[in-house]
Amino acid sequence: MAKLADGRGSGRVKARGLRRAWKWGAYWLAALLLMSLALDAAAMRKIDPGEAPKLAPDEGLLVLVVDTSAYISSVHVRKAGHGPIEGVLNRMEGGRNLQLYALKAGEYEWAEVNLYGGDYHARYSITDPEYRFKVEAGKLNYGGDLVLRATGFLRIFMHVSNRSLPVIDWLEAQHPAVYTQHGLSFVGRYPDPFPALYRSARASNAEEPAKLNAGREPPKPGTLPIPAEQMWKPDRVVDIALNPGGDLLAEVVREGEDRYGLELIDLVAGSVQRLTTRKEAIDSLVWDSDRILLAGNGSGSYTVARIGEAKDGKRTAQVLALDGKGAIVDLLPDEPGAILFEGYDSRGTLVVHRIDLTVGDRDIRSFSTAASRDRLNKGMSNDLGWYADGQGRLRAAIVKREERMVLLHGIAGQYQEVLELGKEGGFQPLALSYDGNLIYGLSDEDRDQRDLVVFDPATKKIARTLFSKPGVDVAAPVLDRRREPVAVRYYQSGRLVTEYFDEKDRALGATLQAAYPGRTVAVIDRSLDGKQLILWVDGNDRPPQIYHMDVAAKRASLIDEVMPWLAEKRFAPAKVLSVKGSDGLAIEAFLTLPEAPGKRPLVVLPHGGPIGVGDRLHFDREVQYLASLGYAVLQVNFRGSDGYGKAFREAGHRNHGKMIEDDIDAAVRAAIASYPVDGTRMCMVGASYGGYSGLVSAMRWPGRFRCVVSISGVSDRALFFTASDSARSAKTRALMERIIGDPNKDLAEMEATSPLYNLDKLQLPIMLVHGREDLRVDFEHTRRLVRMLNLKGRQPVVLAFPNEGHSFDQPLAREITWSGIAGFLREHLEGIAAPKTDSAGTAPAAATK
Asked: Residue 720 — pLDDT band, cuts 50, 70, 90?
């Protein structure tokens, strides 16, 4: 008590009491906050089918959709940026899983995905603001499907895509009263007028969605001069590489769909031997030295072949696996038998280390605990890839910093940011100089075309220009073994040109071109002394061939045919057309004209992109397949195409459906006027933007074309902003808004140039081909177009492939597609239905559900 009397004790008790009171107050505050958040979560009420939800003034309805390829135990959402994680969809099998909720208006986000199965569990926390969505009071809201695709054991790829049409179908079936009262409102970053358009069109049609999803199968093509199976058979030669000494050539050949052979060709002895045969793909070759070869499979696995001396007409060879997956950083030209290799260790850390390729009898170790501990890239984090100088010193790295990709440059662990990557135009780094102090690359910044330049990391500026040609974009530099540029490659009149800097090389290049007139000739590999060359030779009417040239002997010999089954076929040559756009802009086009009496029907084949892509006069399967049917084929490098300079590319900006198609129109009229082309028998066939261009051209010039084929094509320009991998980041969206337009500001113009909103102008037969797993142009484009055409009683021909993306990977999908296109074109260009025999294969279900 005495201590209490002096006041010090009571003070301590009082302070302790205050601390205790504060502590309990904090607990109560936290508890109240949690209760408040729990009440918010509790306000997220599940609405059962047939239920008539009563909404408070600050509440809205929300359709949540998870589209998954694997079993998902639960997916959670929460209020954006805070709040408890709330499970909303549980125990989801593969396919689309939908649920309707009532909840308070505000911003929400997908927060967590959980995978359970037996003894395994993986949790994915989502922190990216791209996964946020709005809920507006009084509306039936939909923010897009959360799409989950398994990419491996406990690994998933996820994104959000606007697929409102199947959501509407589900609402009509499960919640008809709710849908009737509210309709559906897409609440993404950009508007989607389709739900309102469809609601109006559907009002007078009670047909079941299954029937409205259906499309006709394409007509059978009959007997084909070159079957699609033969034309799209994968290349026999996958890759080829010459050793530095110029006496050994390695070649990967494909045997069937799933067998690859690695062959060694002794150019001196003239012998060929098989080193290994395997089912696993081999798609890249590189010689580390005269007797050590590395073969990669495209997914980070490498095989090492050690070549010995010749014995009984063959060389001894030891073929080993390089343990671990990764990528070659540098071949260390001054250290034969060693490389720098990078890959991720068991902790997910990027490891760069030196590998001795001469050590090991069963395999060659790449990653180990010691290698991770002693990695050459110590002290770095978020590094994604490295570059070394000629002495093997790490000099540059690509690093992720928040939402940016940057290039660091330095030495001995001291690096500084010198460049932000991924910007449109600007400097594109390609290679380090041998000493590592300079970076070679391409740039069109403050220039009229894309030039080959040198970037100085010390000043963070372009130091000098190595090559510039007015109005011509450099495609790529050619580097020697010391990483010095010795030439550039660019396209002129559709053909690849290699322009050497050295006078002796220029003379050699001229000799090669003279030896193969009308062909593209490219040196794809050469010996260290430059006396032995490997040539790639092709033309628009000649499948690729590979030659070996002995420069001293002035002798070239054929090594292999890339497509031997087509080697004896005769293909159609191309004419180069020079035309003027509606504003006088010079446009180049290529007309492939098969031999035939009289005027040929015309197929217009616009390319994709449309910006930064171009047609070239290499051998093109699509062009020659169509020409084999007797059709002239027109390709147009309209404004926006690559190769013609910066101003030409930028002339395509915001001209989708407008002046781009004017350029195509000018080329069509020029072809009809100057060549034996039948202007009364024309169809358009295109993929991606080319599919859109075909539809919009037929829309703009009704009656001109007999039919249109759209492959993976855009039908709704605004939808491209909410259902494409191109729009997944703020940076790419800003670029899209500048190049394509902004749906928030330009929606009326986008609707006016979208086939989906102008179907009354599209009265001709339409064929639609699309992969259901397309990330670039979501299948929703085709789903919507098929539905609207069926509502108007004009059922299209449809091929829908379940497991294909934007470009088709499976040979069977390509065969079915082009056999179907042949039947469709024959039916409409030749005036009568094609014979109903010789089917090219069974088509997949022609439905868009």
From this structure: very high
